[in-house]
Amino acid sequence: MRLPQHEGATLVAGTVFLVRDDDTLSEAFWAVARRLRHRTKASLEPWDISPSLARAMGVLSRHGDVRLSVLADHLHIVPRSATEVVDDLERLGFAERGPDPTDRRAVLVGLTPAGIETSRAIQAARQQESERFFAELSDADRSELVRLLGKLREA
Description:
Blueprint: E1 9-11, E2 18-20, H1 21-43, H2 51-63, E3 66-67, H3 68-75, H4 79-91, E4 95-100, E5 103-111, H5 113-133, H6 139-154
Antiparallel strand pairs: 1-2, 3-5, 4-5
Helix pairs in contact: 1-5, 2-4, 2-5, 3-4
């Protein structure tokens, strides 16, 4: 028996049903994203820190002392959420607030020495995990993936 062909669909080998290519692509994308998120979270277990706090520490590590609004912009969150992130980092001893020397009304947030050390260790662990995660891809595949994800991010 011959199955009808439908535009935008692929016959999946060993099945008697059609799968829409965009559904399959979406499912594959989310499966990889979940796997990456799970492995990233696992790589942070030694520090008992969430991925969102690790991202904030990465921003502070790269940019130094910044205003909360700048941190919020980098993290793509609202300023109130950035305040909560910094509160959590302060409780852990990884960040501290201080005066902005250029504006007496403003407050800067930066990493403490313990935060700098922990941020470096986290970055090294995440880099190792990233290398393991993407090990199956050639350099050309990785470059192509970066290009394609960039297109989707900018769309």
